């Protein structure tokens, strides 16, 4: 079985989808996807996702504020993050991190928010989900300074092998999305081959970044299969081996019983 280790179920456009979110999950199940981590992007989302996880025993959530969310909120406090992260079904802190690509002008807010997320992760012993763009050195520096006790994942990874290696040394996992299937992703594919199999995750980041051959469509958790198939072929192993490893990694990192 496969897992979608990072999706945003609450951001899917279900206006034309008969059956709503249940239909989305069933479509994924039919393609071998057994578990889903729906990741929060702000504090209201963190709260509303609790309702979704309560309705599905194979859907989990996180608590956090995306680094591009400054316009919508204040810096989340460590106490608020911990309080929400203590709720049933919440398995991670984030997504959080630094993004100089889209919003370098908010970097002070991003840094303060990131540090609070890392402190919360340390205190509650839950892994942290990292978003990073054009902030390699500072991201790693902060992870070294506030190393999460339960490690975490570099989600939707698009950075260099050097950064991946540094994150791996800190106990982190590296997650690959549909971007790895894009024609322009040669450097990323090199990283995808080099990351140890026991530290790889696969994700969709849906509803964005649909993999080939679905580019231009709304991404869905079922398309994590295309990511996994591509990764397996890239590494010269079977889909079954890739699926087994990434599923084991998911349960181990997020402390979810089998």
Name the CATH superfamily classification. Metal-dependent hydrolases
Q: Strands of the largest sheet, in order across it?
A: 1-2-3-4-5-6-7-8
- The general outline is globular
Label the CATH architecture.
Alpha-Beta Barrel
Low-confidence stretches: none
What is the number of E strands? Answer: 8
Amount of beta strand: 15-25%
**CATH class label:** Alpha Beta
What is the radius of gyration computed over CA atoms, rounded to a whole number of angstroms?
17 Å
Question: Helix fraction?
Answer: 40-55%
Write down the overall mean pLDDT. Answer: 96
| N→C terminal distance | 12 Å
Structural class: alpha/beta
Largest sheet: 8 strands, parallel
**Total of helices:** 10
CATH topology: TIM Barrel
How many separate domains?
1
Order of helices and strands: EHEHEHEHHEHEHEHEHH
Protein topology:
Elements: E1 2-7, H1 20-30, E2 33-38, H2 43-55, E3 59-63, H3 78-85, E4 90-99, H4 100-103, H5 107-124, E5 128-133, H6 136-145, E6 152-154, H7 161-169, E7 173-176, H8 186-194, E8 200-202, H9 224-235, H10 239-253
Parallel strand pairs: 1-2, 2-3, 3-4, 4-5, 5-6, 6-7, 7-8
Short overview:
The chain has 258 residues and is α/β, with parallel strands linked by helices.
Outline the structure in words.
With 258 residues, the protein is of the alpha/beta class. Helix 3 crosses helix 5 and helix 9 (224-235) crosses helix 10. 42% of the residues lie in helices and 17% in strands. It has an eight-stranded parallel sheet with strand order 1-2-3-4-5-6-7-8. It has helices at 20-30, 43-55, 78-85, 100-103, 107-124, 136-145, 161-169, 186-194, 224-235, 239-253; strands spanning 2-7, 33-38, 59-63, 90-99, 128-133, 152-154, 173-176, 200-202. Strand 7 (173-176), helix 8 (186-194) and strand 8 (200-202) form a beta-alpha-beta unit. It contains ten helices and eight strands. The protein has one domain (2-253): Alpha-Beta Barrel (TIM Barrel), CATH 3.20.20.140.
């Amino acid at each position: 079985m496969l897992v979608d280790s990072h999706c945003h179920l609450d951001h899917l456009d279900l206006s034309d989808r008969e059956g709503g979110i249940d239909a989305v999950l069933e479509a994924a199940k039919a393609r071998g996807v057994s578990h889903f981590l729906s990741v929060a992007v702000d504090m209201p989302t963190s709260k509303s996702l609790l309702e979704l996880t309560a309705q599905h025993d194979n859907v989990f959530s996180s608590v956090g504020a995306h680094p591009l969310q400054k316009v919508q909120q204040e810096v989340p406090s460590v106490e608020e993050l911990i309080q929400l992260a203590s709720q049933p079904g919440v398995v991670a802190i984030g997504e959080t991190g630094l993004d100089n690509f889209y919003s370098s002008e908010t970097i002070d807010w991003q840094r303060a928010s990131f540090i609070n997320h890392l402190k919360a992760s340390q205190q509650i012993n839950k892994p942290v989900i990292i978003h990073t763009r054009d902030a390699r050195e500072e991201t790693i520096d902060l992870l070294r300074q506030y190393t999460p006790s339960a490690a975490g994942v570099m989600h939707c990874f698009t950075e260099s092998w050097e950064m991946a290696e540094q994150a791996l040394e800190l106990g982190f996992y590296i997650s690959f999305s549909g971007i790895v299937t894009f024609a322009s992703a040669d450097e990323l594919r090199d990283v995808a081959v080099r990351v140890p199999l026991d530290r790889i995750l696969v994700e969709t980041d849906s509803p964005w970044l649909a993999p080939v051959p679905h580019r231009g469509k709304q991404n869905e958790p079922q398309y994590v299969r295309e990511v996994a198939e591509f990764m397996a072929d890239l590494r010269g192993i079977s889909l079954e081996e890739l699926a087994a490893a990434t599923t084991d990694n998911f349960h181990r990192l997020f402390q979810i019983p089998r």
